[in-house]
Amino acid sequence: MSEKYDRQLRLWAQRGQSLLRHSNVCLLGATTTGTEALKNLVLPGCGKFTIVDSSKVTTSDLETNFFLTQQDLGSNKAAAVVRNLNELNPDVEGTALDISLTNNLVEDSHFWSQFSLIIIASSWHLQKVLTLADTLWDMKIPLIHVSTIGFYGYMRIYIKEHTITESHPESFSDFRIDRPWKELKEMSDSVDLEADDKEHIPYLLILIKALDRWKSIHGKQPSTPKEKAQFKQSCSELQSDLSLQNFEEAVTFSWRASQVSTQVPENVKTIINDPILDNLSRSTPLFWIYVKALKLFIEKNGQLPPLPGVLPDLHSSTEAYIKLQHIYKAKAEEDIIEFTGLVSQILSSIGRDADHLDHDSIRIFCKNSRYLFLQRGSKTLIDPRLIRELGNTPLLSLFIAFIATHKFMDTHSGIIPQESDYNELISIVQLILKSEKVPDFLSDIVKEILRSKGTQLHNICSFMGGIVGQEAVKLITGQYIPLENSLVFDGINSCTEKWKI
Amino acid sequence: MRWISNFPPPSKTFTERTMARDIQLIRILGEETYNKISNSKVLLVGAGGIGCELLKDLLLMGYGEIHVADLDTIDLSNLNRQFLFRQKDIKKSKANTAVAAVALFKGNTRLEPHHGNIMDVSQFPLSWFRQFDIIFNALDNLEARVYVNRMALFINKPLIESGTTGLKDSAEEFIDSVVEKIFVEDIVRLAKIDTLWKTRQKPIPLNYELYSKKLKELPTSIISDDQKIWTTEENLFVLIDSLKRLQARYKSEGVLDFDKDDKDTLDFVVAAANLRSFIFGIETKSEFEIKQIAGNIIPAVATTNAIFAGFSSLQSLNVFSDDPVGNSRLIYDSEYINKFVTQCPPLPGNSNCKACGIQRGIITVPSLDIQLGEIHKQLLKKFGYSDDVSIVVGNNRLIYDYDFEDNLISSLKDLTIGSGSIFFVSDSDDDLQDIELYLEVAPQETDITLTDITIKKKPLKKKESKEEVTIQDDQMEEIFDEDEILLIDEPAEKRPLEIEQEETYSKRKKSTI
After folding, report:
1. Would you kindly state where each structural domain of chain A is located, as residue ranges?
2. Cβ count near B336 (within 10 Å)
3. Fold classified for A6-160+456-499
4. In Å, how far is B259's CA from the nearest CA of chain A?
5. For residue A164, which of A483, A498, A488, A486 has the smallest C-alpha distance?
6. Residue B401 φ then ψ, to 5°
7. Which candidate in A467, B71, B95, B139 could, as Cys together with B46 as Cys, close a disulfide (CB 3.0–4.6 Å)?
8. Spatial separation of the C-alpha atoms in residues A397 and A405, rounded to whole Å
């Protein structure tokens, strides 16, 4: 089991895989794009999927959808795609629903509650997309809307709130150079920068000493660009022989000494000040319980969050490296113990089970406490702010042209606009822009959309299916930072642009 | 909007006589481009993660003929993304299986699989590459990529390159501690050398007696738990068990090489490394983690492959546009907050680059009985070197320079040079640029022929920039070597290669200051 998923476990580990395995994804519209997106979730082993589509397989589906064959012609599209996708991975169970997306269905919150994520892959039903987003809003089930026309692709994610503990930062750079605790201070005090074996001193210790000297002269950490440059200069003067790797590292990473350990990033500050912390209840997700513990921890520890306890690669003797690693790890362990105590205090104070803590998730939370993310989405289709920026970002035109096309198809029961519909489409664009003036590059895109007459190009569908699959995995596993929250793709110029609405 | 003007709407009669499945392609690409694509023959090198996606995309793009080359066989860990393969296909050829899997969907496309190493000149000589209009690379290793790139440059065909990658191997220190199987005697001996332990913790030999008593109580299931960090006795258990397995195989198979996917060798390396770590007080790791370090595993998922295969096949449309080079793009995943990917036009050639800074040609000889001296004479005559040249064959085999003339009277055959060998020719006066010549044997010819190329003069450059070229070569070698594990007994010392690299690195530093 783990062998088959080996290459992806290296990205999201067993925790992520387990969430994926227990997920249930719903696809509305067995289009080529939707099928490709689902293929990218079936292969890595999402637990279940359901396809809702009442249409029949046509020859035009066969032209573009790799997962439909001649013998599927005329049969229900949802059933045919499920049959072919089921073959990809015996661990996954697919279901086909030969029903149409009625107004009643999109409002049926009971039906939707069985799913972990919903993908709607269609160029029409815009109103239904918005209603569904509304239905799913308080259930916090993510909805991804994707559509493709000719060389163009569009994607929008609707979700009320999404929290991320494991955002997978490039590195965990919290080394407390400005705030060494007792053991770390002792180790840095014990090294002599002039000693014979000075080339074995880890640069973190060199920086602690250098910063000490700097503070004894300037009274504070370097903070302005000028001070930082001066500090860097002072680091390069510590050692005349520049070929010593560790001293060179100290110069390269001198900026780490101007990091203020007591400052937590803005995203974390926002999270720990969220009003939800004042109303913790029996149903509050564990994430927020941990956030509350983090808030208390920071207050109790002179504004310092738990230490990740991860050392960077650095030049050092093995002995010094291991000793330093031990000091960082021991401190991190100490922090985890204190943090765990706070979690259990909070849980008992709100009458929840404090005896069976998930120690794994606590460890992961502590390690990532500077890299927590909270995303809050919106249900609005377009932001007036974006319209004002139309002149500066050419791809915004594509975004607006897509919305106009979706609106057109909604009012014409799914009929694809033809070249003769140019004026009507432009008038929809004018309504969106709230202006008569349509820039040339926008009307050019509208012309290209009309020229393609709803053509699906497999290549573009497969590409958009890749992006949807990727974002779906991030949303389901709660790892990595999902795209916020709209994206268009221009396959003619091979470029993308995304915006948060 | 470059393409819009290039794609006129299709004529009605044409649409009617074409297969129904291509209506949408003709509508969006136009009749002319569609025709060009359906008359094109392309080569896809690699049928792995990107390869499977790309084969599907190229097929549905309507290419006339697709050849798929791959030397690999299917492994269980491929199935999470290589969607053309099933459990029942494990151990079968990737190229053959991929082509068989898409047979149902192929429409008018002709498909041909090639199970083999693309760098094998007897199966894939340069003349074989000539039949293709476009070459797509979907490879996982740099060596083959560089090779296919050179072939494409020799015959001047468009190459579309794609690749995805995940984490880097960052655990050098650990590999250094991977040592041979002696955990007691050698350690005792090492521990006696006091000078070694003045500045570091003395290793503690394994108390084998103490642990061996506990071994019988351990369940064999521990071997399959690759997520757990094994205890010392569990490591010892796995070590002994894997040694037994390897011993049995040695009798029938002879010398065994480490392979991350060979569970017996992996178990041995993991257990040995962990025991050694334990002795030296280094953190131990799970088999899952060590597999990534020792096997140089790159994480891979379906989604990124789908995205970048999409780009790759889309880029191929540029080949049929008015300005193939100008319209082509380099595409990367993006770190910009408002972008998903970033793209830029192809970069201009770099005269220091081994791939694009070199002129290429072909030497054709009637037979391999020709003496090297004759080729040498022709080279001097044809390209107007002022004095002499040096000739290197393959990666680094020097066969001629002005004070090494012994080979001139030997035949190519005696020098074990054959069709597909690549000659790297440099001017001894350092005046003309280096060139690369691909050797082809053509029995119908009577003389040696050399492609007409005018070799440019070397740009005047400072000495330092020459050093940078050698650094690039070093780095290249380091990358080629990465599958090898060096068994080194002394963790604190640096490997000679590292020291050498550091020296060149600091040289470069100085030269750029």
Report:
1. 6-160+456-499, 177-260, 263-376, 384-452
2. 10
3. Rossmann fold (3.40.50)
4. 15
5. A483
6. -155, 180
7. B139
8. 12
Q: Please say whether the beta carbons of B410 and B333 come within 8 A.
A: no
| Structure tokens given for A461 | 């569908």
For residue B397 the two structure tokens come to 């085999």
Question: Of all helices (H) and strands (E), which one includes residue B149?
Answer: helix B142-155
SS3 A386: helix
Question: What is the 3-class SS of A161-201, one letter each residue?
Answer: EEEECECCCCCCCCCCCCCCCHHHHHHHHHCCCCCCCHHHC
Q: Are A441 and B274 in contact (CB under 8 A)?
A: no
B79 and A CB contact within 8 Å = yes
* Amino acid residing at B393: V
Minimum-distance CB partner of A7 among B77, B227, B491: B77
Residue A158's Cβ-count burial label (10 Å; 0-12, 13-18, 19+) is: buried
| B350 Cβ contact list (under 8 Å, min separation 6) | B356, B357
B 46-65 residues with CB < 8 A to A:
53, 56-57, 59-61
Q: Output DSSP code: residue B73.
A: B
Helix ranges restricted to H, B286-433: 287-295, 302-316, 324-327, 372-383
d(CA A191, CA A185): 10
- Chain centroid, CA A404 distance in Å: 28
Instruction: Please check whether residue A472 is in contact with residue A117, taking contact to mean a CB–CB distance below 8 angstroms.
Output: yes
The complex scores an ipTM of 0.86
Interface test mutation site (partner A, options B340, B493, B503, max chain A beta carbons within 10 A): B340
Q: State phi, psi for A240 to the nearest 5 degrees.
A: -75, -30
Q: Cα separation of B212 and B219, whole Å?
A: 14
A319: which chain B residues are within 8 Å (Cβ-Cβ)? 199-201, 492
Comparing CA positions, the residue from A351, A344, A264, A267 lying closest to residue A308 is A264
Contact predicate A256/A295, CB 8 Å: no
Kindly report the number of other CB atoms within 10 A of residue A58's CB atom. 12
B24/A319 touch (CB, cutoff 8 Å), yes or no: no
Measured in whole angstroms, the distance separating CA A360 from the mean position of its chain's CA atoms is: 21
Q: What tokens does B112 get?
A: 């041909």
Its pTM stands at 0.77
* Four-point Cα dihedral A170, A176, A178, A179, nearest 10: 160
Percent helix, percent strand, percent coil in chain B, to nearest 5:
45, 15, 40
Q: What is the pLDDT along chain B (513 residues), one digit of tens a residue?
A: 233 333 344 433 333 334 456 888 888 888 889 999 999 999 999 999 889 999 999 999 999 999 999 999 999 989 988 999 999 999 999 999 999 999 877 778 999 999 999 999 999 999 999 999 999 999 877 788 889 988 988 888 888 887 765 322 222 222 222 333 355 566 666 666 666 666 667 777 666 666 666 766 777 777 778 878 888 778 877 877 777 787 777 777 777 777 777 888 888 888 878 877 777 777 788 888 878 777 666 666 677 788 888 778 878 887 787 777 777 777 766 655 566 666 666 666 666 666 666 788 899 999 999 999 999 988 888 888 888 899 999 878 898 988 888 889 999 999 989 888 999 998 888 888 888 899 999 888 888 888 888 888 877 654 444 433 333 333 333 333 333 333 333 333 333 333 333 333 333 333 332
